[in-house]
Amino acid sequence: MTLQYEVWLCIHKGEVVISQNNLPGVNVNTGETVYITNGARFKPSFPVDTEYIPICYPAFRPDLCIREDVDEEGEAISSNLKKLHGQEEEKEVKDEEPPEVLYHMCPKVEWEAAKSTGDAYFPKTFFDDEFLTHATGVPSRLISTANHYYQDSVGDWICLQFTRAALKKAGIFVRDEHATAVGDKETDSELMGKWVCPHIIGGIPLHVVEKEHRMIREGVKYVSIENVC
Description:
Elements: E1 2-3, E2 6-13, E3 15-19, E4 26-29, E5 33-36, E6 43-45, E7 51-57, E8 65-66, H1 72-84, H2 87-94, E9 101-107, H3 108-117, E10 133-134, H4 140-149, E11 157-163, H5 164-169, E12 174-177, H6 189-192, E13 197-200, E14 211-218, E15 221-225
Antiparallel strand pairs: 1-8, 2-5, 2-7, 3-4, 3-6, 9-11, 10-13, 11-14, 12-13, 14-15
C-alpha cells in the first residue's frame, strides 16, 4: 500500500512487520511505535494476533490509502473501509472549514492542578479516547456538549482558548473529524452528527492557552461561557 498521509502505528499487543521492496522487514513489537512517512510504499504483515492504534495526519480516508489487494480478504477489507468512510459522511465533515481558534472545556480544579506543576494538561479520558483531547471551533457547542456529558459533574468548569497554530509550534497536530465518544459516554448523533470536531493529538501545553473563560451553570445545567457566548 501507499499512504498519502503520515502515520504513527502504536503497537498495543502483538507484532507488525513493515516490508519495503526488497529490504529486510522491520519488526515492531508490543509497546513500540513506528513512523511511516507520507508517500511511503510498504506492506504490513501480522505474524500474531495484533492490536495497534494508528495516528494519522491528516485524518485517514480510504482515497488517501492506495491499497494493492491481491486476494478476496484484502478486497473485503478495502470495501468495508469505504463503507465506514462513505463519501456522504466525508462531505458532511468538509462542509465546515477547519477552525483556527479552538476551545476546550475542563474542570477548573484539573486545569489548576496542571498549572501548579507546570506540566501540560491532559483530560482524564485521554487514554480511553485513544490519545486525543477533544476541542471545538464553535464555543456554543461546548454548552450542548457539557449538558450531554457533564451535568453530573460537581464543581466549576472553565473554557480554554488557544489556536491551532500555537499547538503546531509545540509539535502537536489537530485532526478534524466527526464527534467521537468521551470516555464511556457515546455521542448524541442527532445533535453532533454533522459537527466538525478538532481532535488534538496530545495534551494542551500551558503556554499555548491565551484565555480562560468561566462556564456558567444554573443548577446542573450549563447555560453560557463568560465573555464568549
